[in-house]
Amino acid sequence: MIVSLTNRFKNRPVLAAVAGAVFLMGSLTWASVTKAAGASETPVKGGTLVYLEQQPHTNLYPPAGGFYPNGGILNQITDKLTYQNPETLEIEPWIAESWTVNADATEYTFKIRKGVTFSDGTPLDAAAVAKNYDVYGRGNKDLKLPISEVINNYDRSEVIDPQTVKFYFKKPSPGFLQGTSVIGSGLVSLATLALPYEALGDATKIIGSGPFVVAAETLGRELTLKARTDYNWGPAKLAQQGRAYLDTIKYIITPEDSVRIGALLAGQADVIRQVQAYDEKQVEDEGYLIYAPSTRGVNNSVVFRPDNPLVADIRVRRALLHATNADEIVSTLFSANYPKATSIIAKTALGYVDLSSRLSYDLEKAKALLDEAGWKVGTNGLRQKDGQVLELTAYESLPQPQNKETLQLVSQQWGKIGVKLNVLTADSGSATVNNLDPAKAPVSPAMVGRADPDVIKSQYYPTNRNVLLQKGGNSDKVQAFLDEKLNTLLDNLASEPDRAKRLAIASDVQAYVVDQAYAIPIFEEPQAFAAAPYVKGLSFEAVGRPSFYGTWLAPRH
Amino acid sequence: MTSMNTTGRSLLQNDAGVLEGSSRVFAAGHVGNLSGLQWLASLRGIKPGLVLAWSVIAIVVLWGLFPHWFTSYSGTVGVARQQLRAPSADHWLGTDALGRDLLARIIYGTSQSLSGAIVAVGVGLLVGTALGLVAGSARGKVESAVMRGVDVLLSIPQLLLSLSIVILLGFGTVNAAIAVGVTSIASFARLARSEVVRVRASDYVEAAFGSGGTFLRVLLRHILPNSLTSVIALAALQFGSAILAISTLGFLGYGAPPPTPEWGLLIAEGRNYIARAWWLTTAPGLVVILVVLSANRISRSFGKAGA
Amino acid sequence: MSRYVIGRVGQALLVLWAAFTVSFVLLQALPGDAILIKFLNPELGLGPEQIAEIRASYGADVPLLSQYLHSIVNFLSGEFGYSVQAGVPVGDLLLANLPPSLWLATLGFLLATILAGVVAVLSTLAPFAWLRSLIQSVPSLFVSTPVFWLGILLIQVFSFQLRLIPVINPGPWEALILPVLTLAVPISAPLAQILIRNIDEVMTEPFIAVARAKGASRSWVLWKHVAKNAILPTLTIGGILFGELLAGAVVTEAVFGLNGIGGLTQRAVGSQDIAVLQALVVFSAVAFVLINLAVDLLYPVFDPRLRIRERAAA
Fold it and tell me: What distance in Å separates residue C189's CA from the closest CA in chain B?
């Protein structure tokens, strides 16, 4: 083509020059266009994001934000005192500019940023912060507001001046700082705190200071969030401080898995939550993106209730641990986004130690342990001892991904060493009641997400979630089981102010739990999202909840 | 849920069936030997649809009774890492998420589904008909009380009723079937009662009473047999909707505990994989459609012959 | 006549009361309770004393009889309480879910009637016996299809593959097309069967033969005489079907992500939200009783024979 061009222009130098210049300019522009498309990182302001959620929210009282549909909304409409950097897990300033902690972590003083207001105009100052934490730390019996799980040993608050607030604790509370950054500590207006718990399902009544505000709600179906134009207080270390880029976010409840994915791929939605592992390939094939932030807490595992005599013997528990092939489970049901567990907490969690050598899959060892414990294989292939069959039961856990299939696979694996595991499905009522009874549920699935070593205490301590069902906890069906050593370790974990020592205790606890085979960790559970390629700036807080503050929509091709 | 309630009489079609033609030929054949041509003519009367329906039911019954004849795979234990395979020579209908052969799951699920449907229809039929009979025969206050009781049953949302029953009895195919059956009691009761009322008013029953028959004897000898035809027709029709109602309970999460294979549960569970492995939900769905169609076809043929 | 009406109304009230009581007993018999489920939820991480306090403040362990009486008094005064699960007043929930259900049920029923009518008419006018048989098998096919399966298939084909109808964030009318179709298909089956049978029966009546003898065509006869007579039984079964539609469209709602009474019921049963369930029972019982009463009182209006019989009986 060049040859013919030059031929054409042989006798017309000016024309040639002009043509050449045009050509040159054209190619330069083309280059800059392609360069811009490749490096187009200038956020576009405006637009509506359509986000598909699987279940409707149940309650927007911030300490109830653990439930992902609740947390997904709270994360956009409320701010917290501090910001936990999702990558480094360090605590950074947000509504609080700075803070001091006394030596034994019983007094915390926070300096509040100036100029922050709730979306109804009332100021977010020290008094408001104090009131918030009074409710979260002590609850409110009249309004039936429960205490927040992340605040331990709270005593009282004190407003020193309009920008300074101090908190006092009865016992050392080293996890409190991280606790001010979690979803459960979102700050809401005083009017919101005056509402009874049972009325907090109405999203339009929740007034926070976040970058978005609830503009409209169709109960059980959809929610419209609008950006707050006067927002000016993003997390201190972020470049973005002003209002969010998006104008509107539409949350739409879409319970069917296939409809959520189909809608995304057909261009009817922009971001969806809960993408199953088996659907990931389809999403990626179409050029869409999977985001699978880790929940950084206790791994998806199967725990025992040692109060039940069948699993009271440590040899039985160890045998079942070695009979569980986590590799097989992950490769059959899940994907690379669900890494095999190597401890009871995730690799990305604080205080993690690698215990994979003690979590090996070893059928022969498992069989030997059961033989040693006196369980012999009977005629029907099941282990028996003193006329009892080693038959266990577990209730499926609906919020955990593919839990029914996981438990069935575990049941198949345990069948190889002669142990029967019945997987039961039940409605919430029966499951809740029966799960509190070690006789009915000697085995149970478990998982909790929180990016602080306190999460282990949350899981195992009798007066918290008490997954092992120890005596003195939420179950009155427990006969005797109590592990003093474990509880002491957990207590120490929650009250050790020195960071290095705390992490050391964390590793002790992990080693102890694995040693006692109280839990069989299977995989590290992420929150799986899928998004269109033109959705930029989608980020997640430390436990995998979406944050749309920095999100913007690039022009679609 | 699509249980078919009706206050009408028999729901069976009554077209001029060729079956009547064929039965005439057979009758003729009893007089003398059937000649070859007459036999061939009688064959023309046999509808291919009916033959197909019977064969489907026969195969399905055999699946239920002797599943191991038809497949060497297990219906409950899967092979890890063989999950979600497409239909192939090894697995005619592919494998599910745990590597279980789908055809084996369907075959082993037959006894579950069929027994569930039978229990569901049985509960509705027995309890409902008994109530209807009592109401229709007794008249007066008893009838009022029974029918108002049936009304109460109908006024409580059926979904609430069936889910609550499943929760109370525990999750399982039989319990789900009982829940479905309870929700159909009302329609059986109403139908039975209206049939009894109709038969009671007829001449021969009046005659029976007039010639000195006791209430119970007249009930058993005359009223019962004549009112049951349409009730049984309704039962046959409910068979198919019972299978579907049980599958709907599975869809809502109230199905049998794993790893029980059951057609409705297979359809419900397979729907999640519709984009990646559509055969998981389609195959059991087609099986259910075929079985229900065949059952309805057969019940229609009974209706024609009997009516 | 008025004695009859008063009697029927009295019975209706009795049924209402009985439904309320039976459901109260049934719901109390379910294991666990809403407060336990909501607050024992691991996401809240509450300890046992806190849960005990909360239960006390909700009055959960008050004796059953007094709970029952409280319940009745509240309902009579229009106070339906709060939904423990959704965190809003029960009245709000009903208001958000009733209208969509009504829309869906009405449109679904209309479409079902049209579908049934089309099938019935086609089968009557079919020239060949095999065609007739084929068309008459269509209701069986409709009724054998699992509703959620049909719904998901329709979405996959029409919304995702062909991209004709958006299923997310659709306009008010677009949102109804696929769900109404999904709902209408299985409901049209019994309607079609009844229609077909009734048409057949009426066709064999002597007065039809007279009309034909006088020279009327089949279709004219169909419209003029048969339709009127076939309507009555259809209305009866229609009343029941409509009630089912209203309460049972749970599957369609779940698949299409719509608001509705069915989904509300299912969520409430799952979380044992007794306040919501009691309200639903009351609403459903009232609707059922009213519809029945209306049908009972309107039947004589439609069928003159019944009017005469009644006068004779009175």
Answer: 9
